[in-house]
From TrEMBL:
Family the UniProt entry places it in: Belongs to the glucose-6-phosphate dehydrogenase family.
Organism of this sequence: Candidatus Micropelagius thuwalensis
Protein name: Glucose-6-phosphate 1-dehydrogenase
Encoding gene, per UniProt annotation: zwf
One example of a Gene Ontology biological process annotation: pentose-phosphate shunt, oxidative branch
Keyword Hydrolase in record: yes
GO molecular function per UniProt: glucose-6-phosphate dehydrogenase activity; hydrolase activity; NADP binding
Residues that bind substrate: H180, K184, E218, D237, K343
First-tier enzyme category under EC: oxidoreductase
Enzyme Commission code: 1.1.1.49
Biological role: Catalyzes the oxidation of glucose 6-phosphate to 6-phosphogluconolactone.
One Gene Ontology CC term in the entry: cytosol
Reaction catalysed by this enzyme: D-glucose 6-phosphate + NADP(+) = 6-phospho-D-glucono-1,5-lactone + NADPH + H(+)
Amino acid sequence: MAKFVPVGSFDIVIFGVTGDLSKLKLIPALFHRFLDGQIDRASKIIGISRQTLTEEEFLKFAYDACVKSALKGGAFPKAKWAEFVSMLTYIEMDATQQCQKWAELKNLISDKNHPCIFYLAVSPHLYVPICNSIAETGTKSENARVVLEKPIGTDLQSAIEINQGVRAVFDENSIFRMDHYLGKETVQNLLVLRFANTMFEPLWSNNSIDHVQITVSETLGVENRHEYYDKSGAVRDIMQNHLLQLLCLTAMEAPISLKAEDVREEKIKVLRALKGFDAQSVLKETVRGQYISGHIEKQAVSGYTEGLPDKLKNSTTETFVAIKTEIENWRWAGVPFYLRTGKRMAARRSEIVIQFKPLPHNVFGEGIREPNRLVIRLQPDEGMRLYMQIKEPGPGILTLKSLPLDLSYAESFAEVSYPDAYERLLMDVVRGNLSLFMGHNEVEAAWQWTDNLLQSWEEANQPIVTYMAGTNGPLQSAMLLDRENRAWWEEKA
């Protein structure tokens, strides 16, 4: 069992502390790490927001967030909570403006030798103004770090502007660009699977792999994010970051070390080799979809536009996207990569499916119907399954069946309470470990490919097709693979 290694004292300043990210992820993550002894009481957690709250109201907000979070069983630890509360402080302030509150913040920040983490849980257009305020008010210390949430911008140009603006205040080695998917156990295990097991390396190329599928599907709709999501869509919200990160880790060459710069270098090579689109190919190789009313777990749900304000009722924003692309290098030439993501789909799951080529010669006749597959599941139940052919027991005709060798985290590590992605990544920020965070070149390379896709859609006047909520997406998505005698992997219950 891996041990929780305590980190040194630190201060974390959360801008936008009253938002959903802070309530659902950041405050509970810090509390959980405190419960496991990774954070000591000398650390400080300072919340910044424009919302008017008394100290008592802020502590009630934090308490409700932690009570509702997924604590690992048992009663709420009130004694530990009383200790944790002593670390919390709230300041009402517009962080884009210079004001007397900055002096109050500076006084709260501890020893300048401690890491001071500025977590920007705000809209990306506020990143540069807040960083400028940090610099102009003298709040930044030598050991200061800044965390930026995805997405970094809305296109390549805005991403460049944000990166340049933040880098004018913070060194690149002090900037932590957060994509929480990189903190998931199975995502990290993907590197171990590939580079710590010699058996897979000879198979990990176009010599043995037929195609790769990467799926991130959600049963949720846009909830209370209408204004943001309608300007973003599935491509900017999920494809540009989560899906491309998973693709990079699946396809990258072995780095010379696990240092951040070495891992980033190999991921950037994948992004630069990723095949682009034009007005003709985008019509054949991509699908844009939007969900209409349907049922999820027997509950009726309304369509995307039905939940929008009147001014957005005619929206053509995509809530689903599926694409076929390729990586144009020697290892992967000719291997299709199919990526899809969508909201209001049949199941919540994120997974990578490596489908191997069929046998060159089948001596079993009709016995083999399924190819070998490696299914890497990120959520909801993290684990890996390698589907192989076995003989069904019994006398008579030799009958084969495809069954998985199953590595389930829940079963294999039943006694281990391991931290979630945000918990792990926050501790990496404190340690100054950049390995699981994106560099500015990586973000910009991802946006360059994404901008090409969006521009090609515009030039081709790409139609948006509908799919019923509670399904696996539009029919056109299935046809994207069907015309090449392939199909999306939908694991049987």
